[in-house]
Amino acid sequence: MNTRWITISSLFAASLGLALTGCKELECAEGTVEADGMCKPSNGMFSNAMCGPFTVLQGDKCVPMFPPTECDPTTTEVDVDPATGVTTCIGTGGGGCASPLPCPAPSAGKQTICGQLYNLEDNEKYAQMTPAPSGAKCTPGGATDGPCALSITAYDAIQFGTNPMTAVPLAVGDVYLDDCGRYRVTDITPPAGPFVGLGIDDFTTGNRGPAGVTNTVGVAIPKQISMATKDFEAWIAKKSTTDMWTSSGGPPISGGYYVNIFRARHEGLENQAGVTATKGGQPNTANDYYFAPAETARRTIMAGASVTGANGTAIITNAAVSEGPAYAGSGQIPAECIWEAHAGASIPNIVFVQLFRPGNAIGQTCPL
Fold first, then answer.
1. Where are the alpha helices (DSSP H) in the chain?
2. Is the pLDDT reported for residue 28 higher than 80?
3. Cα–Cα dist 8/251, whole Å
4. How far apart are CA 7 and CA 25, in angstroms?
């Protein structure tokens, strides 16, 4: 009896094993074995088939098949995308205003900021009008109008926003500006505070402030040591523009402006209508001004408006750096998103411009 039971049990077990083997779905190729439900190289075996395009196997690693990109130093400048590591060779032989300037990595411990000047009134790139811009580098002090009449100075943004008269400019390697309005401030010595500020004004001292090409304009960006910040928007704001704001019901420039521009996405130039500027999470009704709803430029203040129009912009008065990142927005974004919060400043005769973009709400992923 016992012998018969063992024989039947053994046959049953063997049949079950065969049945399980027959149901197995994972078939591994030669040189690989199943491990944790996956096919993996056996005994450290690797093959070129595992490597991606333009890579070859060296030992157990896939390496580039060709040497790294090399740019001709006499006709191009190296531009490396820090996110992807892709190197682009950007020509230095003119070619108009279509392409951005090369923005190479700074020296160790420094920061480089590159971007484009825009006219705050009409959202257009601020370029030389006559003759047509060619991409020629500006000669400091060599023009009375257009980008080449301007200067760009780096500051500790907190110092500048607290008191521009006592703020000390940061040391930089070079300031490049061309007649297309493209700029590059290289090797900025990082400030003590968390933000780098750029001050845009006339190059000629006697023309600075409302009397010149632009009112004094300030923008700020986070300090990023040993990094190049690309495509950072900077602005000019003509006296004729701020005079239009005042004459249409806005505040005078003598009290200073903190200009909030709400962008529809975390990248790009699309502005967002229907946003209410907030301070401490509440509408800032005592100090906010908005433009006419359909106006894509920034010319006419609309009395009684409480949300941004097509230009996505609110003008805030009586803002102070000491309040911290109290300024944000409300409305027109999904529940997974929140508007960025920033500190602000309204200082006599200065236009501070700040972009606000949607970011991730706590524990959420913003789709914008």
1. 2-23, 157-162, 239-247
2. no
3. 97
4. 30
Q: How far is CA 117 from CA 67, 82, 198, 210, in A?
A: 37, 23, 12, 18
Q: Where are the domains of the chain?
A: 103-237, 252-368
Question: What does the pLDDT read at residue 221?
Answer: 95
d(Cα 215, Cα 199) in Å, to the nearest integer? 10
Do the first three CATH levels of 103-237 and 252-368 match, i.e. the same topology?
Answer: yes
**Averaged pLDDT, 250-271:** 96
Which run of H or of E encompasses 182? Answer: strand 182-188
Q: Is the CB of residue 263 less than 8 Å from the CB of residue 357? A: yes
Q: What is the DSSP letter of 205?
A: G
Task: Please determine, looking at this structure, whether the domain spanning 252-368 carries the CATH number 2.60.40.
Answer: yes
Number of H helices, E strands in the chain: 3, 22
Most confidently modeled range among 36-40, 89-93, 315-319: 315-319
pLDDT, average across residues 229-248: 96
Cβ neighbours of residue 129 closer than 8 Å, sequence gap 6 or more: 145, 146
What is the CATH code of the structural domain delimited by 103-237? 2.60.40
Q: Which two tokens stand for residue 366?
A: 């913003």
pLDDT value, residue 43: 53
- Does the structure show a pLDDT above 70 at 190? yes
Task: Name the residue type at position 56.
Answer: V
Q: HEC profile for 299-344?
A: CCECCCCCCCCCCCEEEECCCCHHHCCCEEEECCCCCCEEECCECC
pLDDT at 24 over 90: no
Task: Output 363 or 80, whichever has higher pLDDT.
Answer: 363
CB 284 within 8 Å of CB 241: no
Structure tokens at 357: 């973009």
What is the spatial order of strands in the sheet that 282-283 belongs to? 282-283, 276-279, 327-330
